[in-house]
Description:
The structure is a homodimer of 325-residue chains. Helix content of chain A is 30%, strand content 30%. Chain A is built from 10 helices and 14 strands. The first copy, chain A, has helices at residues 2-11, 18-25, 29-42, 65-69, 90-99, 149-163, 216-219, 225-229, 235-256, 263-268, and strands at residues 45-49, 53-58, 81-87, 107-113, 131-138, 169-172, 176-179, 182-194, 197-208, 276-281, 284-293, 299-303, 308-311, 316-320. In chain A, the strands form 3 sheets. In chain A, strands 3-4-5-9-8-7-6 form a 7-stranded mixed beta sheet, sandwiched between helices. A 5-stranded antiparallel beta sheet of chain A has the order 13-12-11-10-14. In chain A, β10 and β11 form a beta hairpin. In chain A, α2 crosses α3 and α6 (149-163) packs antiparallel against α9. The relative contact order of chain A is 0.11. The interface between A and B is medium-sized, with 25 and 25 residues. β8 (182-194) of chain A pairs antiparallel with β8 (182-194) of chain B.
Amino acid sequence: xxxxxxxCLRETDDYVSGQQLCQELKVSRTAVWKVMNQxxxxxxxxxxxxxxxxxxxxxxxxxTADELNSIxxxxxxxxxxxxxxxxxxxxxxxxxxxxxxxxxxxxxxAERQTxxxxxxxxxxxxxxxxxxxxxxxxxxxxxxxxxxxxTLVAAMAVYDAISSRIQGCSIKWPNDIIIDGRKVCGxxxxxxxxxxxxxxxxxxxxxxxxxxxxxxDIAGVAASMHTASGQYFKRSEMITDVLQTFEIYxxxxxxxxxxxxxxxxxxxxxxxxxxxxxxxxxxxxxxGIAEGIDREGCLLVRRxxxxxxxxxxxxxxVRGVLGYV
Amino acid sequence: xxxxxxxCLRETDDYVSGQQLCQELKVSRTAVWKVMNQxxxxxxxxxxxxxxxxxxxxxxxxxTADELNSIxxxxxxxxxxxxxxxxxxxxxxxxxxxxxxxxxxxxxxAERQTxxxxxxxxxxxxxxxxxxxxxxxxxxxxxxxxxxxxTLVAAMAVYDAISSRIQGCSIKWPNDIIIDGRKVCGxxxxxxxxxxxxxxxxxxxxxxxxxxxxxxDIAGVAASMHTASGQYFKRSEMITDVLQTFEIYxxxxxxxxxxxxxxxxxxxxxxxxxxxxxxxxxxxxxxGIAEGIDREGCLLVRRxxxxxxxxxxxxxxVRGVLGYV
Lengths: 325, 325
């Protein structure tokens, strides 16, 4: 009920009368009054005026299920939100829920992760309150070898949410979002499958939103939307923006089961596009001009001898002339 | 200790003295005596003669960890055996153990499965006592799209174990073992992965060994080694044969990360080899002569117009002139 009351308050600029809330939600005045107090305790600033009702003045920076449910306008992404203040990692919880039958689009969000993970088990710094740590559960009916492309689809959605707020971010192929050469978002895709059938895919997304400083060991390579712009951002609004855009891109991806409908837009967001890149792949080194991704999500690199190499993501290092990017 | 005493008894045709067992295993006479009684209760027939010691006369048809440990001679496959009388499915348990960090080669065996699964969630009949229901946990350092080939590697190992005991079995591409057109073994490969990195692979193997009759709904398509030969077989010996052969084939597979070292031997076991096959794939139908698999495990089919089609496993139906095969 809390989410629905919050939604009513959000959808009106003016006051919402207590009576109206009681009628719409079929609850008592006392129940409404209790929820208002709970919301205030959580940090929502609600003005109550006699004979006029309640008005939402300010919202706190929360990523709870109620907060998200009150602003989500997607058709399937995040239709079920699982929020916990603390999780080992949102991907781990999403995988457990998936094994128990959780549906396509289920979203897992935590205020902090005690052991957030990046690719190949690397640590992902996930402190309380400053970032978005979430995982989306997907059940696409595509071949397992196509699933890696979903990482690029997610990167596009995150890029759009960040770049509508601040300038200067880019995608570094395949799925890092960077600002000034520093990573502001990481995406970890995990899958459970049979050889020709996907059980589920979990896309973990970590975004450094309001982080003010980073531990010494990653300070040189990590950025947040705040360190890059000096501003603070509502994380719940970021999350809903990412989900809304992801839903659109995902549906376009599923039309063809590849990136043919999205590669042009992806390439516009790609920092390496048209730039010289240095590739290192299992001891093999070469360089050339990045010509963007193909419909399978591989990076095409035209070497100086004219040959175009299709770089498959994985343990490959891609560096530009300016170092990291 | 039980497994080690069993191993000592097994490795000697003659009597093993109680004193010798005490010294080798560093335990008391009473402890040895207790284990002998336990083994007898489990169905092992052990002769005890004063001044000579113990002799193993007959072994029951068990697949317990002690039984398997006493005969396994592999270097890594089944080095850890997890046995339960009853499991929902051995794949499910293997996946849970894998998430908890269980090692490469861990074997999960059950006397019966309450909800054994085939591909895409289909039911697999797994009654008590008559079959082999087991899963092998693997942690190969290969790209996820290569993992499906492991199913074919496992099929070869099962084929070898069955065909060294009875005649008339074949592999039906990609991984069914059939006798007289009926399925005697099913293999379900499941994987947890990142796009470029495998967390683990679980290969579930179900073999109908001593099954005497099948439920009506599968009686027309299922066979057991017993229904095909009239004989009964020790399941523990079958399991160790499968693991020993699997280990060899697996290591050969890993040398190249594909089937180039194994495809010739696979094709010799393939019932469809050189035969006309009828393919139905997403509504598309064609036929031709099966020319065996390629190094990626795809079935090559030469159509009458000379074109060779590479058939990828999945929701594809392959039928021979005699119907099912």
